[in-house]
């Protein structure tokens, strides 16, 4: 078994101490209300927009595939919107549970 040099041992000790300091700093830092509201707002907006975009894209490609121009596009738009609202509802319920 090889012997570890002293300078590497001291380096490892300093790294471990710095990691402990960093973890303690992360635990103590509280998230501000503004940061939480901003994060939540972006998440809700992203959920809504992504649901609508995916549903609309699926509808568009189905319309091109079956040559039925607006039918699947409109249906995909509505189903995508519903999926977006469902995702937002699940997110809000989960946040309510976490706050309690």
- Contiguous helical run count: 3
Radius of gyration: 25 Å
The number of strands is 0
Helix content: over 70%
**What overall form do the CA principal axes indicate?**
elongated
* Class from secondary-structure proportions: mainly alpha
Strand content: under 5%
Could you name the ranges where pLDDT drops below 50 across 5 or more consecutive residues? none
What's the main sheet like? none
* Average pLDDT for all residues: 91
- Helix and strand string, N-terminal first? HHH
Oligomer: single chain
Distance between the termini: 53 Å
What's the SSE blueprint?
Blueprint: H1 6-28, H2 33-66, H3 69-99
Helix pairs in contact: 2-3
Q: Mind explaining what this structure looks like?
A:
With 100 residues, the protein is mainly alpha-helical. The protein has 3 helices and no strands. Helix 2 packs antiparallel against helix 3. The mean pLDDT is 91.
């Amino acid at each position: 078994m090889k012997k570890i040099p002293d300078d590497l041992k001291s380096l490892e000790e300093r790294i471990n101490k710095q990691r402990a300091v960093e973890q303690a700093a992360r635990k103590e830092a509280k998230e501000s209300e503004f940061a939480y509201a901003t994060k939540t707002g972006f998440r809700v907006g992203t959920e809504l927009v992504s649901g609508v975009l995916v549903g609309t894209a699926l509808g568009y490609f189905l319309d091109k595939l079956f040559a039925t121009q607006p039918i699947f596009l409109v249906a995909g738009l509505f189903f995508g919107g519903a999926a977006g609202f469902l995702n937002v509802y699940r997110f809000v319920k989960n946040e309510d549970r976490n706050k309690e």
